[in-house]
Amino acid sequence: MILLVHGDREYLREPGDELHTDLGVVDIPIDVDSGDTLETHLGEEFRARELRGPDLFNHLERTGAPMMPRDIGLVIGHTGAAAGDRVLDAGTGTGILAAYLGRLGADVTTYERDADFAEVARDNMAVAGVADTVDVRTGDLTEETDALAGAEPFDLLTLDTEDAPEVVASAGELLAAGGYLAVYSPFVENSRATVAAAEAAGLSDIETIETIQRELTVDDRGTRPSTAGVGHTGYLTFARR
């Protein structure tokens, strides 16, 4: 897939497709490369651009509220997720977190209870170019923990589900020595239950942070925090085996 960009407009298309807009029609070559300039039949220019992580957040099909890039950055930064890691994920949704981790080179197994959501996530993994490294499974991870605990351990466990504390209770068996846990929740009550479960599971380095980000408004009058948008997204709990 390739992005065609004109000003603040962005269109996700496959090489070989046609793009129809009010600015004209663009024939997209099969061998289009990032950085190529393509003209519509009306002479308007579009720039071809390779997909990057933020583009995935903006253009993958959504089945709910995906994890924000700033939260994904904290997950990666606090856990050191890297190429070659084995990741167990639950609450796939759109698959944004799984796609980011897959593009890092991690091998991701992610569980989504809703079969329709899981199918959308599989399509999104193909668009993101990580269908070979991200295994989207339809099912409830809480019903699979015993089987998974008896297999090869994971380097990272990431959860974005209401029943995260139930999975965290098995984190000691799911994670390799030194492996990390990262749990996202929009509610502090769930984070509190997650911390209690992590303590009971014997995990260490337990911490919970609230994710807040303020955009600055810069104009001729001066610079100040923006009064628009939502700064708070949720709570992230981290722990280590």
Automatic annotation (TrEMBL):
Residues 69-218 form the tRNA (adenine(58)-N(1))-methyltransferase catalytic subunit TRM61 C-terminal domain. It comes from the Archaea. One of its GO terms (cellular component) is tRNA (m1A) methyltransferase complex. GO terms for biological process: tRNA methylation. It holds the Pfam family GCD14. GO terms for molecular function: tRNA (adenine(58)-N1)-methyltransferase activity. SUPFAM superfamilies: S-adenosyl-L-methionine-dependent methyltransferases (SSF53335). Keywords: Methyltransferase, S-adenosyl-L-methionine, Transferase, tRNA processing. This is SAM-dependent methyltransferase.
